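Weekly puzzle thread! Below is a chain. First person to post its structure in token form gets bragging rights.
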Amino acid sequence: MPPRMPPERTGDRGLEQHGEEPGWFAEAVLATLREPLLVLDAALRVVIGNRAFYRAFGGTPEETVGQPLYELRGRLFDSPALRALLEAVLPNNTAFDDFVHSVDLPALGRRVLLLNARRLYRDKHKTDMILLAMEDVTEKHAAAEARARLAAIVDSSHDAILSKSLDGTIRTWNAAAERLYGYTEAEAVGQHIGLIVPPERRAEAASILERISRGERVESLDTERIRKDGSRLHVSVSISPVRDATGRVIGASAIERDITERMRVEQALREAAQLLEGISSASPAVLHTMTVQDNGTLVPTWVSRNVTAVLGFSVDEALAPGWWTAHVHPDDRAECLARMEQLLARGSLVHEYRFLRKDGTVVWIRDELRVVRDSAGRPRQVMGAWLDTTEQHRLEEQFLQAQKMESVGRLAGGVAHDFNNLLTVITGTVDLALRGLQEGDPLAEDLKEIQRAARRGAALTQHLLAFSRRQVFQPKVVNLNETLAELEPMVRRLLGEDIRLVTVLGGATGNVRVDPGQLTQVVMNLVVNSRDAMPSGGTLTLETANVDLDEAYAGRHLGVTPGPYVMLAVTDTGSGMDEATRQRAFEPFFTTKGAGRGTGLGLSTVYGIVKQSGGNIWVYSEPGVGTTFKIYLPRVAEPVTATETPLPPSSARGSETVMLVEDNAGLREVARRILEAAGYAVLAAGTPGEALLSAERFHGPIHLVLTDVVMPTMRGPELAERVIRLHPEARILYMSGYAENAIVHGGELAEGTHFISKPFDAATLTRRVREVLDRPA
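Winning reply:
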């Protein structure tokens, strides 16, 4: 029903009539009320809930207070209509009553609530709030529905009650007879019973009257009648003699029940039974029934034949006493039995548990049960369905793992981004310091150790960026077979003599679009991982093949798009992984190796590169058997990218003018000193605005703009475009350590863009500047 919206009231000030009540008093009042209550602030966040609310909906105040109403308990109150009413309470000074809202509670099932809201005018913070009260009217609704059903049954009854004399003259005719036969009482009374008896049945009717006149009774005689419109119907007739005060039979009283529908239903039931058998055989759910004995024991009575396909057992086996209990997974058995004990009281039950198939495999079963009661309310039967949800559970696990990896990746990428700037300052400053030392200075070795540590840190940030898919991606079309052939000598050197290398390269495998350097990194990381898993020797197999992943495969593997792929499989015969280790294999910094033997970034780097390349990676492993990593990279129809001839080396020094734009002061200062030490004239700016002002005032040529990509107020590409308007001769060199910026699209570097990745040292910076300046226009 729509909620009642009373007119605006200005006199109803709630607790304000008594002044400001202390918080403990308001909470005590709420706590004593038996109906669930919530107090909401203007943003519809929970300020307080009473005990009745927590009893009804679960949870704790710590989990509830401060949360938006629409996010509570699995979004139980997420209703656009309710939201509109609540949002109008404070601005419009309105209230509402009897808003009908249904919720599904895990313990109680579907419940019907009446929601009422009022404005609370002040609390100790002088803030208006909303009091939301809830009344559980499920039973009232059920009772109203039951009464409505009973009335419908009475109104639709086809039983006719009539009386007649021994000569067959109709004496009485009730309303049900009017409905059943179409004649009004005025039309029927006084007429012979032949009015509704077909001609071929009139001899039968006369014979019955003869029996009645002798004082006999006729019980449940199935016969035919004819209605006013000429149509015929089947009826069940029970006739009793009517006697006068002396006991003499003077007539007959008949109850005539239309059984036309019953006969139709019986035929329909026979057909439905056949249909049910067909449906159950094709359905993924196993249907079953149980009889409820007087002592509450459940006895299996029927199970659909597809139990054999789903669970491996025959129908007879599934109906054997104790079969279900014996095959519930031992770890879930106690909880399942406890919940089944509550079934008859609750009336329904939905729960999931693990079940042992006949072949011993474990599957997840969603068990939905409903209790059927007799007219007295006693449970008589339980109807249920077993649905195999193993695949759903597996996909949920994949989804949760993917979410976790994405969250960790964002964190890792953000840390690496900030760390790159720090490392650039460190490496650049150390390079400058080393240049200023005399040969043999004892401080040089200390500075070189700092330099080596910074480079190790730079390598770690590259691993983190690769995992988080924020490494700058410079793809080319390559052939996987050719790449593996080129890497084979290096792989053999890494493996050593104790490990046999086997290559199984598929014929005519298609091309893939990847960053060649990153692809090499993937292969070598997997090879090293396999080598470490085989300390006593073994076999490493590298395999490639064209594969087409269909919709069915994509449905079982989260994130996979159906289509053509090239597969790379790396298989070892090493120690393998248990399930817990396999689940965490790609997490950064997770390693099973001893201290000092690994960073835990090898497989996470592989994962990030494969994902950034548009592919997918899956690991299959068993302890003591070995491990297989399968990588699927999208197959492309483009030809292999031609190898570029490297430019001849050039001096890293120069005399041109370079505009340096970097908002990080430390990094800007180091880059300026490096460039000036290499002979360049440097126009340094800390913001895009400073850079543009400098470009307007500088009348000589600006040969190169070296700019960060992401800066306050303006991004690097926009700055470069505006500087080129003033100085068309300028070339642009971008610097960044992060793939998510304006010059990178989907992790790929835009074609023709000059770029230097952070962190960099002095030699890398000066060499890259020289390369851009020397490149033909």
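Puzzle host: Confirmed. Bonus trivia for everyone else. DSSP finds 25 helices and 29 strands in the chain.
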